[in-house]
Amino acid sequence: MSLGYAEKLSYIEDVGNVGMVEYFDPSHVLREKIDQLAIMIKKSKHLVVFTGAGISTSCGIPDFRGPKGIWTLQREGKALPEASLPFHRAAPSMTHMALVELEKAGILKFVISQNVDGLHLRSGIPREKLAELHGNSFMETCPSCGEEYFRDFEVETIGLKETSRRCSVAKCGTRLKDTVLDWEDALPTKEMNPAEKHCKQADIVLCLGTSLQITPACNLPLKALRGGGKVVIVNLQKTPKDKKASLVIHGFVDKVIAGVMDQLNMQISPFVRIDLFQIILVQALSNDKRYVNWTLQVASAHGQKAALPFIKSVEISFLDREDYKAAILDKQPFRLKRRTAYNKAFEMVLKLNFSDGCGCSSLEIDVPVDFKVSTDCFDFDKDYIFQKLRDKAVLESRCGQNAVIERKTILTPRSDVTTYAIVTNVVQYSKACKAALDSLSNGDFKKRKASVTGTGSSRKRSKGSSKCKSRSDNIRGHT
């Protein structure tokens, strides 16, 4: 059984009660600090962001030291918070997606994260610009060749232990390991070395949603000071590094970042999640060659034995064939075995019922079957297909768009494998962004926008509207 988020993070050192009380800057002070941070980011040549659990609380993932944090509730003898959705379905927060926009614009050079929730990678931060100091619950790595595998399910182990899967690189096949550290594990040099390098180069290290108490990670931002860089901290609790910071902001991270993005005239794009699955049809001729014994399986694209967490059940029906009995597969592996006359072609309809946390409830896939005709093999340009699916999902403001990205035939045993990509979530941030800006504005936040962007006098009210525009609000609360 998959470990829960609290167990996944039990290795982190608890260093006492420091930072459990939350503080909030007065609204006018918060607005001034957001202005100041926006100016600093605009002028920055090498911005590095250092993140903690506080940027993921609006994703339904609890933090540790807040009033409802995991460690706080443990000390008080209370039950741990229940996630509002399955961990593997958590969507990036407004802050996660804002960082993606800053990276695309060339402003953000590197992200350092203490989180194991995988949301930075899922949001779109390039792997080469990300250091995950404590690992990633959804990542496996090959200890032999170094290949990494980002999964749609939680890896079942922690502590850099072997998992049940092997490396798929040709001539490798080494047993994979999880990447989440345990108590005794040192921070991996693969993550620490680039993190230290970028902190030393940084003119700003922006710390978001972290108490800066977990060593040695918490000392990374201070390396910027030696080269003349500055540290900025955005957190609801006080931290041991506050005195070293040039700017400390006590406020919700999403609210602060929404204000900064508005001041920079930058839009926060929607998040579109695309998941993969395979339809596998295995066939074998009977001895008299009159019948085909066949097996249909709906499987993970990460391997036939891997979990397929976003599909709850599969309903199978047959078009125009009353003699073929329909079936409901409600347990994994989703597998159906049947026997059919060799010369009979038919068409199946697969209704995929999705698990909680997906943006659509189900999807129907037509699967034509003709055992006498060979299946054509092809491998499309996946990046092109993914982008078309994203564009269509954003335009239609819904999920369910799907496409075949690969089809191949395996000779022994004879198997036709078709891989599908499907949009399972579309998250728009417009209303949450607007609400955050409205709570800041009170009629005068826009007045100072011109002084940040350089488009006019700070006394002149901007006539432009917020750049954080989309269609709907699927964001879950605030950070």
Automatic annotation (TrEMBL):
Domain Deacetylase sirtuin-type: 27-267
Cofactor(s) needed: Zn(2+)
Positions contributing to Zn(2+) binding: C142, C145, C167, C172
Compositional bias of kind Basic and acidic residues: 470-479
Amino acid composition bias (Basic residues), ranges on this chain: 458-469
SUPFAM superfamilies: DHS-like NAD/FAD-binding domain
Region (Disordered) location: 446-479
EC annotation from Swiss-Prot or TrEMBL: 2.3.1.286
GO molecular function terms attached to this record: metal ion binding; NAD+ binding; NAD-dependent protein lysine deacetylase activity
Family: Belongs to the sirtuin family. Class IV subfamily.
Name recorded for this polypeptide: NAD-dependent protein deacetylase SRT1
This protein's encoding gene: SRT4
